[in-house]
Design a protein that fits this description.
binds nicotinamide-adenine-dinucleotide; about 350 residues; alpha+beta; seven-stranded mixed sheet; 12 strands; Ribosomal Protein S8, Chain: A, domain 1
Length: about 350
Amino acid sequence: MAEMHHVKPHLLQEMAQRIFVAAGTPEDLAAHVARHLVKANLSGHDSHGVIRIPRYVQMIEQGTLAGAARPEVVRDWPATAVVDGKRGFGQVAASLALDVAIDKAGKNGVGAASVRRCNHIGRLGDYSEAAAERGYIAIMTYGSAGPNNGHAAPFGGASRHLGTNPWSIGIPGADEAPVVVDFATTVVAEGKIQVARAKHAPLPPGSIVDKEGQPTTEAEDFYAGGMILPMGGHKGYGLSLVAALLGAGLTAESPATEGRGGGVFVLAINPRAFTEPEVYGATIDNLTGAVKAVAPAPGFSEVQLPGGPEAKSRAERQRSGVPIPGDTWDALVETAQRLQVPVPEGAP
Ligand SMILES: NC(=O)c1ccc[n+]([C@@H]2O[C@H](COP(=O)([O-])OP(=O)(O)OC[C@H]3O[C@@H](n4cnc5c(N)ncnc54)[C@H](O)[C@@H]3O)[C@@H](O)[C@H]2O)c1
């Protein structure tokens, strides 16, 4: 069994923030990204948490992530906006886009924003949860497409062309927790292939194909040029492609010429524009309550709502700490020490 540390979330956040500041990021932006990453860990999505820090710092050092850049609205219509992420932290740019979209939805019923020149935005559910807390529905995606782009093949295709192109949709109710749908449009995330490779374990059938487009369960075939398949065949492929087209088409500054593009798109909806708030909230709670009341199938203990597993994980990990595998912790400490950031007292 690999070594596992349990780190208090506030210590992890403090350490993350200090590392980014030491790498040249202003305090407020560093705090924003640190909070986002630790919330991903708390929510059970460790692949989008503090494990990313060494890579982000490396990107700052290589100049592909402008750690001090502040995103800016560069095109502003009454109900829509375009944000320039300036190749800074994607979490900061995506949060600005969400804030702008919500502000516009407050005035117009709907508001939308896109982000160009955007780096990795982390866990998409974070944004739809934030919108739901403010009483807004949010539909968000981050898509990219292009020759040799990303890890995924289009349905029926035999080369890498699409990102994992996630979608997140958050629907707030009245008294109940919001429904938060948040996932990649591929069968598996690349991180899961890394895990299978390390364990020499087969991947679930139907997850990947080799470089010739032949089905395989061998993780090594992926690293030899294979591809991840879209979830649900042509259906996931459709959602993935639309993510890329929204991201590219609504952020473009000049016509694409190489079949390549991508970006973030977020749509905020103000339920109050459609019906009375009490009617809306009671309706959503009534419907979600009825879904949860469906009798569990054999092998299940309950029907959960999307967003439920993450909320449970947050409650549990706030109490017990964030489990960080030994290797991940060592890489974090190494990054901190290189930047002369002390490991917070009380952390392992
Ligand atoms: N920034 C990026 O470019 C990028 C790319 C890909 C994925 N991601 C993120 O990676 C994370 C993981 O993605 P994934 O595709 O592995 O997601 P996943 O397969 O873990 O699915 C998560 C979703 O399924 C819901 N869910 C899980 N179990 C459930 C159950 N029993 N009943 C009801 N709902 C349930 C969750 O609440 C959540 O909405 C997401 O947060 C996503 O935003 C980000």
